[in-house]
Amino acid sequence: MHFINKKIRYFFLISIFSLGCEEALEPEVFSDTLPSNLFSSLEGVEGVLFGAYAKASLNRGNDATAELANQEFMTDISFSTGGGAGALNYIDWILDPSAGGIFYTRPYEAIRNVNIILDELPSAGITEEERTLIQAEARFIRAWTYYILYIRYGPTPLRTSSSDPLEMERADEQEYINFIESEFLEIIPDLPNPGEEKQYGRATNGAAIGLLTKFYLNTQQWQKCADAAQDLMDIGFYALFPSYFGMFQIENEGNSEFVWVRPGVATINREAGMSFMNFAWPNDFAVDTRSGLEFCDGCRNFAQEYRLHDDFYASFEDTDTRTELMLVEYVNTSGDTINILPPNDNVRPFKYWPGEGDPIGPGYGNDIPVIRYADILLSRAEALNELNGPN
């Protein structure tokens, strides 16, 4: 191997000196990542598409955890202590570049991939049926991503082609809203029915209708929200999961309450998993007294600890089963039973447990539900209340 490397270096140096300074090197490129190569096959096109899914899903490293945490740190639900200074950005409502690139840069990287796909698709070496599906999925990712950006920042620059200028102004708000709505409406007929997608985690017409329902709700388009929710209900595929406690367990992933998820896969380097529980364990946690969950060999306990505010925990009725996924008592590493009920803001969110034998490292394999069927029912109820008042 060393001999071959030396030959390569010597050949490179000889080539430079023999050419002199008047003639530039023009190597023949054999890379599989050139657009002309990538878009010559379905595998290449899907490679760019899957890259867009990954960027939009934010499931790398601690990205998934940060995405979940920022939504709750900006409310009266939770906060954190210990390491991880970035959490202060969310607690103080500061979403500037110091909060990390995942909230702005990564979504635009997903949009970049989508725009490249849409620009190259007309000449791609795939069938018309494949082209129609890839185009619908790509536009789904772009619409979903712009919706995320809109909820976080309001209208942002609306990039729809890889040839757009480097610097762009914010889009007009109504233009932005119209774009997201039309994208979802136009792709719904071309997306597969739920359960018929090529791989779990790829877009379906149910996911598009679900996101459109939430988009209508958050833009106060009440009648459209109620109608879209009813359209999803009429599909007949989705249903409430019988156990709130079991719904988020890895062994129950793919259940009929999950309309759209960000899939997770347990990995030792956290490249495709999620690490939320690493921030939720108390620093001396051994066993949950209520459920029997134990701190496992592959688990990690990070310095930054996520906690629930006492007022939020107290807002639940005693019989509310959602509190089953909140840690209130545990056995520590010394064998002592520790009660962390209020006061002290110390109850822990225990929603995304690692699965049995799953935690091979600090990235666990939990899927994160973006939209559940329960969200759709509540969205329709809220929209109807806005239209007609309570009943």
Describe the structure in brief:
With about 400 residues, this protein is mainly alpha-helical. The chain has helices at about 1-20, 35-40, 40-55, 65-75, 85-90, 105-120, 130-155, 175-185, 205-220, 220-235, 245, 275-280, 310-315, 375-390, and strands at about 80, 260, 285-290, 305-310, 325, 330, 335-340, 350, 370.
Helix tally?
14
Number of strands: 9
The coarse silhouette is globular
> How far apart, in Å, are the first and last alpha carbons?
77 Å
Helical content stands at: 40-55%
Order of adjacent strands in the largest pleated sheet: 3-6-7
What order do the SSEs take from the amino end to the carboxyl end, as H and E? HHHHEHHHHHHHEHEEHEEEEEH
Describe the structure.
- By secondary structure, the chain is mainly α.
- Helix content is about 45%, strand content about 10%.
- The protein is built from 14 helices and nine strands.
- The chain has a three-stranded antiparallel sheet, with no helix packed on it. The chain has a two-stranded antiparallel ribbon with strand order 1-4. The chain has a two-stranded antiparallel sheet with strand order 2-9.
- A hairpin with a 4-residue loop joins strand 6 (about 330) and strand 7.
- Helix 9 (about 205-220) runs parallel beside helix 14.
- The longest helix is centred in the middle third of the chain and has 26 residues, at about 130-155.
- The protein is globular, with a radius of gyration of 24 Å.
- About 35% of the residues are buried.
